Amino acid sequence: MARNQVRLFASQLATNKIPTIKNESVKDFCFKDEKDWDLLRAAITKFSDETLAIPLVINGQKVYRTETKTQVNPAKHGQILADVSQATAEDIQAAIAAAKAAKKQWAATPWTDRAAVFLKAADLISTKYRYDMLAATMLGQGKNVYQAEIDSVAELIDFFKFNTKYAEELYASQPAETSPGVWNRAEYRPLEGFVYAVTPFNFTAIAANLVGAPALMGNTVVWKPSATAALSNYLLLTILEEAGLPAGVINFIPGDPVEVTDLVVNDSEFAALHFTGSTDVFKGLYSKISNNVAADKYRDFPRIVGETGGKNFHLIHPSASLEHSVLSSLRGAYEYQGQKCSALSRLYVPESLWPRFKEEFVGAMSQIQIGNTSSTDSLNFFMGPVIHEQSFDKLAAAIEQAKSDPELTIVQGGSYDKTNGFYVQPTLIQTSNPEHEFLKREFFGPVLTTYVYPDAKYEQIIDSIDKVNKYGLTGSVFARDRSAIRLAEEKLRYSAGNFYINDKCTGAVVGQQWFGGARASGTNDKAGSGNILTRFVSVRNVKENFYELTDFKYPSNYH
Ligand SMILES: NC(=O)c1ccc[n+]([C@@H]2O[C@H](COP(=O)([O-])OP(=O)(O)OC[C@H]3O[C@@H](n4cnc5c(N)ncnc54)[C@H](O)[C@@H]3O)[C@@H](O)[C@H]2O)c1
Ligand SMILES: N[C@@H](CCC=O)C(=O)O
């Protein structure tokens, strides 16, 4: 008997249960414990003092290439954090081959052992690597410590832990009916072939989930990380390796996105895309895959899972709490510089509230401190830089457009500066046109557009919110009047996959608010829920019969 068969048999001696899973608690870094600050400062200094050479990782081997791309600190773009090796065509093919070769053993690895890798990685991030994770995300992706903590520590750990709980529930889900003498079973096979994960810059946790969810279910992965998140993403991979992830299960391939994608999705064993990023990039990938399906390139119909852009709204009703809706809107729009797919980018305020709303909102905006969020001297900055020069230029162009457009007025903000880092001031723009393109286009930055509606037109504005753009990711209604809440909840059914009542439209927590939207916002497979795991398995039904036939005729044949 082969050795791995012995291993498989040994794993069947008990049905193990995942430990009790709870959301990771978020440290508030409010200086009650100076030790936290010292540890964080040491980690920031460590990553700042040297330019890390980041390799590709193929079949567990580090591969360094002479062609590299630098990752800079967006808060101080003269600071080069990493030299990231770029994959050649041969590297990409080698990564695909490694994913295929590792598949059989990983798929046959007992579930307990696969789960343990992710539970241990979560534990390592909660303890030994918490400050490294924070520092890498703060420096590389321009987050302040609180935003880094809720992303690269809490949400990331939650994804890894909750996914094990959801997988356990999925595996336990079996056909409910059995006839006498029959045992029906469902087997949750990993997909045949390999998974391609293409991950965004803005959440280290999302990258972790895009590679982690398929891998947990027994798939192997080719991972193309975002160029502007390479540092935290590579750190994550090394932590997974320390937690016991076998070679070849996740292959890390930074490189030219189009070149990597074209080779990966042209492989006949490409089984699934797990993507998060912008809508247009996803459409391009979708169409390449569809064309390949039509051209008979694949053995299977690849699964396509993509979470994409948004143009998320707050609808303020005249009965809303003014202070709460002002502060929630400010956080929703400007936290992490508006670079959350869920960020508030269109705000609807009734005329009766607008003068006081505007005064309080602008007053709060003027207290926002913006600066180098990865500084070792200060944790004071509420906002930091936007991610890179293209984003900065796009936002600057939008602000300039607003200055000359007669239908737009800059209420507050409107300045920007890229001398040292990519800084865009939080900006509030008012439009007189409820159909304006600023209510349609995703800017992905701290630019919020507001439309002030007549109180009597509450229902009409709901219709306009629903129809004005193509997205359907997140949205909120703020009201004390229950009928106003009910009307918005009913009429905005398809306007947001995550709908909030008297809360901001960002900040979904794994296991609590399942995340994702439909329309142009993605396939809505709900990260943070068990549903996402079903996309990375292909169920086999097994019927075992205990009765043996003694005759081929039916009883009626003897009548
Ligand atoms: N719905 C969600 O859950 C969610 C979450 C986070 C971010 N987002 C969206 O992501 C976007 C911001 O992230 P981003 O700037 O990293 O997005 P992006 O689309 O620019 O990049 C995402 C990934 O796609 C790769 N990519 C870019 N062009 C490609 C191409 N032509 N072919 C193949 N791959 C390509 C990038 O290298 C990166 O790895 C926003 O639109 C935001 O709304 C959505
Ligand atoms: N969980 C986050 C996801 C943000 C995506 O970029 C939120 O809901 O704000």
Automatic annotation (TrEMBL):
The protein's annotated catalytic reaction(s) are:
L-glutamate 5-semialdehyde + NAD(+) + H2O = L-glutamate + NADH + 2 H(+)
- Pfam families per the UniProt record, alphabetical: Aldedh
| Broad EC category | oxidoreductase
Molecular function terms from GO = L-glutamate gamma-semialdehyde dehydrogenase activity
Q: Which UniProt keywords apply?
A: NAD, Oxidoreductase, Proline metabolism
Q: Name one GO biological process term.
A: glutamate biosynthetic process
| Keyword match ATP-binding | no
GO cellular component terms?
mitochondrial matrix
Transmembrane intervals: none
Show the active-site residues: E307
This entry's Enzyme Commission designation comes to 1.2.1.88
Q: In which pathway does it act?
A: Amino-acid degradation; L-proline degradation into L-glutamate; L-glutamate from L-proline: step 2/2
Q: Which SUPFAM superfamilies does the entry link to?
A: ALDH-like (SSF53720)
Q: Which domain of life is it from?
A: Eukaryota
Enumerate the spans annotated as Aldehyde dehydrogenase domain.
68-542
Q: Which family does it belong to?
A: Belongs to the aldehyde dehydrogenase family.
| Protein name according to UniProt | Multifunctional fusion protein
Taxonomic source organism = Scheffersomyces stipitis (strain ATCC 58785 / CBS 6054 / NBRC 10063 / NRRL Y-11545)
